[in-house]
């Protein structure tokens, strides 16, 4: 799994939601959230971003 999978799931969720497949869209959002948690994407950026980028 990777960040690209999370991004793709979110894009597919938007397509589903805007074309009337609301339940399928929410399912994909949930999937993306669980993958994000498994990848530890919810960590504070202060720990891994360079100082220059943190200040932006």
Distance between the termini: 29 Å
**Structural class by secondary-structure content:** mainly alpha
Radius of gyration: 14 Å
The H/E string reads HHH
**SS field, number of helical segments:** 3
Helix content: 55-70%
Strand content: under 5%
Global shape: elongated
Largest sheet: none
- Summed over residues and divided by their number, the pLDDT gives a mean of 88
Poorly predicted parts: none
Beta-strand segment tally: 0
Pfam families: Fungal_trans
GO molecular function: DNA binding; zinc ion binding
Protein name: Xylanolytic transcriptional activator regulatory domain-containing protein
Organism: Petromyces alliaceus (Aspergillus alliaceus)
Describe this structure in words.
- Helix 1 runs antiparallel to helix 2.
- The chain has 56 residues and is mostly helical.
- The protein is elongated and about 45 Å long.
- It has helices at 3-18, 22-38, 51-54.
Describe what is shown at a glance.
Helices cover 66% and strands 0% of the residues. The chain has 3 helices and no strands.
Task: Please give the structural blueprint.
Blueprint: H1 3-18, H2 22-38, H3 51-54
């Amino acid at each position: 799994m990777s960040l690209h999978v999370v991004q793709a799931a979110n894009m597919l969720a938007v397509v589903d939601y805007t074309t009337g497949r609301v339940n399928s869209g929410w399912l994909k959002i949930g999937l993306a959230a669980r993958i994000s948690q498994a990848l530890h994407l919810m960590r504070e950026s202060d720990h891994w971003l360079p100082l220059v980028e943190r200040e932006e």
